[in-house]
Specification:
The complex is a heterodimer of chains A (88) and B (669). Chain A is mainly alpha-helical. Chain A has a single domain (2-87), classed as Arc Repressor Mutant, subunit A (Orthogonal Bundle). Chain A is 43% helix and 8% strand. Chain A is built from four helices and two strands. Chain A has helices spanning 2-8, 17-24, 28-40, 78-87, and strands at residues 44-46, 73-76. Chain A is globular. By secondary structure, chain B is an alpha/beta fold. Chain B is built from 30 helices and ten strands. In chain B, the strands form two sheets. Chain B has a seven-stranded mixed β-sheet, sandwiched between helices. In chain B, strand 3 (55-63) and strand 4 (66-72) form a beta hairpin. In chain B, helix 6 (146-153) runs antiparallel to helix 12 (257-276). The longest helix of chain B has 42 residues, at 300-341. The N and C termini of chain B lie far apart (88 Å). The relative contact order of chain B is 0.06. The chains are: A mainly alpha (88), B alpha/beta (669). Chains A and B meet through helix 1, helix 2, helix 3, strand 2 and helix 4 of A and helix 4, helix 12, helix 17, helix 18 and helix 19 of B.
Amino acid sequence: MLQQLLRQLTHGQLQPPEEVARTLGTTPALVAQMTEQLVARGYLQSNAAQGATSCAHCPLHTVCNTIKRQPRLWSLTAKGERAMRKEV
Amino acid sequence: MAGKSENKATRNATPAADSLTITLAGQPNVGKSTIFNVLTGLSQHVGNWPGKTVEQKVGKFTHAGQNYTVVDLPGTYSLTANSEEERIARNFIIQEEPDVVVVVVDAAVLERSLYLLAEILLLPAPVVLALNMIDVAEQEGIQIESAVLEAALGIPVVPLNAARGRGIRELIAAVETLSTGQYNYHPRYPTILPAHQEVLAEILALIQDDAPPLYPPNWIALKLLEGDEELTALMEQRLPPEKWEQVYQHFYAHEDAILDIAGARYEWIERMIRAAVIRPKVGQVGLTAHLDKVLTHPLWGTVVLLAVLGFVFWLTYALGSPLQAWLDGLLGLLGDYVATLLHGAPVWLVALLTDGVIGGAGMVLTFLPILLIFFAVLGILEDTGYMARVAFLTDRFMHSMGLHGKSFIPLLLGFGCNVPSILGARIIETKRARLLTILLAPLIPCTARMAVITVLTPIFFGAAAGWVAWGLVVFSLLVLVGLGLLLHRFILKGEQVAFIMELPLYHLPNFQTIGLYVWQNAVAFLKKAGTIILGVSIIIWIFSYFPTGDPTESYLALTGRWLEPLGVWMGLPWQALTALLTSFIAKENTIATLSILYGDLETVLPTALTPAAALAFLVMQMLFIPCVAVVATIKQETNTKWTLVSVGMLLFISWVAGVLVYQLGHLVF
């Protein structure tokens, strides 16, 4: 089932966990758990871990307030892509 | 379980020789401690696990003449030795050999707890499954057929509500039956692919003779194949080098076996859930799914998005413009008052304060009500969960235009500010794709750009402002997509990355959250008005006042007129071009500069620019080079050459778009 989840990320577009769950025939809660495990194992990365929202380097950061709540996203890591290539 | 009085009478801190040991295992917050407290009452000892800082709880009770020792294991999500808690939990079960392990799960989210059960079942201890919080599950309409689950798992299953003491007697009865061998215990385990079963057998054969005492060799073999670091280190020490080399070769050849092993556990969980859990068909999730059928639909979702965007601008102007006009009147009175107060002071000083400070930075401040309403509406959209759908729709749109992959996250950040957007491009591995994202990011309309548009459109277009602002945002995004398509065709080839994105449930907005969001944005705007915008206003005023006091003969006019040939193509006078240039320091300076150079924006500006020229000006404002902070960030993330390319490209695109819009607009208006 983990391989099926990873495969979902080798093609297609942005998908909410509910859609992934429907495709895998399971529940969003289980998809969330699998996603966490795949992040822990280095197959997926989350945008929160990528530190993409840092404004620290901006000269205007002291007069700016644009950091909004960002949606959480997950995508394949190089390890995840390698695993999927092997599968093919 | 005996009555309370009996329990109180028989509980004591001295372990009985014939005591049975019950271990409570489970994830954090599933009610393990509640069960522990109900079972042991005051007969408990709280300390630390030997040599660890993790809390250890041990208690005792007697039931029907049988003494029990209860050990509450630390809460864990799995047994993969990722944390101290997980190591303690699995080592205790293996080394201390409890008589029964009670795995406590939250019945309301059963599937999330069963992974731990799947792992514990592999250890050498009989297991009882305690379905705690069964009342919460029932309240949420989730029915769990415990008898079916028991048959499917092959282990005792006890539903309980520990907080109310319900099901505790049944739990003890199940422990008793299991520990005395009266239960037909035959757990059903997850199965893995035949290919991995073979390699598992080979690893088992290699390690069997060297497994540490009490550790089941087949369990060690499985954990080694999963890549368990603690057991890998342990077995590397215990195995002769030649055997370890062979084991290592197996790991190397099957480094992704974890996907099969853990995947099999999830399939096993899915089977159990399908067999024993009946979920509600309606409810909050159902409503969200129902709404998302429309709101995330490629066509209808886009229609709704465009309508929502139009509504945001309409509401902002309908409520904000009268307030702005009122504040503008107040500002005029303030200017008159200051001029009267400074009667007799040097003319330049009066002009600096009335035209430069009040007319520049002050004018920007009068637009605060419009921005507050704009932020409030955006805050409501975000808090209800709709903004996440916008991101979802945008991605689909970008995919269809060939713009996709990891560029999505940085570009999404650009709607707040282009600086984190460009910094966010660091997540993109390929240099070309990273560069493309950096080149496109300034075309995302940031909050400051949107603020300028929100302020200027009603001045130029009155009642039609909502439509114009709406069109400008759509146009800006279309230019981004068009440029992205062009660049993608020649630079970003072949990269396609998909994402899973969490879409929150829709809910009613929390007005405290929205208030905080509006407050933070208002404070940021005021800080900017009091620092950068005020500073630039004063500088602009100085250059527009000296040497003669007549703006048309000022240094600024001299510079502006030098640019005038470029503006002729768009019907823009030098004042408008100068305002665009000052937006390089901060976007809001456009308003302050126009105010200094034209005086009363509301009355003068619509006469100074024809509708076609005004539209061209707004288009240029949307597509013009970003502020200095963004350009500095582009330089930091790329180099001088690409920074110049970015600036040059945006100057060219904005100028061409401005000319086209003016020339076409000239035909229409």
